[in-house]
Write a structure and sequence with these properties.
This protein is of the alpha+beta class. A hairpin with a 2-residue loop joins strand 3 and strand 4.
């Protein structure tokens, strides 16, 4: 029986970055379709200035994520991203980039998300910059998505809004708090899975999905 796992995320969410190794393994579960949906949680009204207090909070939280997941939050990220007072905490541009990928090469959205996260958290690059995001997509061979992002047309903006609206409606419908959130659809039924398993015991989560 086919199953769909909807992964609700934000590209600037540290816990979503921490979940990427487990997510990679989930892609290999037989009979499971993985659907990525950006929530826009840290875009628009959810964006904010990167002041010293927020940067310190983010770094402290990132270290906790690193301890639990083994994911790298580099000094380059701390110095070039968190210490940059001109760079806002705004996932809007990265979310739009991922929608450009969804529009042109949907099977590559995971690859694009991973590359954007590595660019930010390891390389210390500004993924709130459209030019930086276009370069990342080009490096992945996603030239159509890069061209779309370089000159966004109304269709891309509409798609982006529709994707984030769908994700937000799902969060509300299932009273899910924050991201990452996992929704499993099987036999016509949809349920929320405990996303902490992405960090604590991904093997058990994979077994649960395989048996669902």
């Amino acid at each position: 029986m086919s199953k769909t796992l909807q992964y609700l995320y934000d590209p600037l969410c540290g816990w979503c970055y921490g979940a990427m190794p487990a997510l990679a393994k989930l892609q290999g579960v037989a009979g499971l379709t993985l659907e990525l949906l950006p929530t826009g949680l840290f875009a628009g009204q959810g964006a904010r200035a990167m002041d010293a207090d927020f940067a310190n909070f983010a770094w402290s939280n990132d270290q906790r994520i690193a301890t639990q997941t083994g994911q790298d939050f580099s000094e380059a990220y701390r110095r070039l991203v968190l210490a940059d007072r001109q760079q806002r905490f705004d996932s809007g541009p990265a979310t739009l980039a991922l929608s450009a990928v969804a529009a042109t090469a949907p099977a590559r959205e995971y690859d694009a998300l991973k590359a954007i996260q590595l660019a930010r958290y390891v390389e210390g690059r500004d993924v709130t910059s459209a030019a930086s995001l276009v370069a990342i997509l080009h490096a992945l061979g996603l030239s159509d998505a890069a061209a779309l992002l370089a000159h966004p047309e109304p269709a891309l903006v509409s798609l982006n809004k529709a994707r984030t609206r769908q994700a937000q409606e799902l969060l509300q419908a299932f009273a899910a708090r924050g991201v990452p959130t996992l929704l499993l659809e099987s036999a016509g039924q949809r349920s929320v899975l405990n996303s902490s398993a992405l960090f604590a015991n991904p093997a058990a989560l994979i077994e649960q999905l395989a048996a669902a």
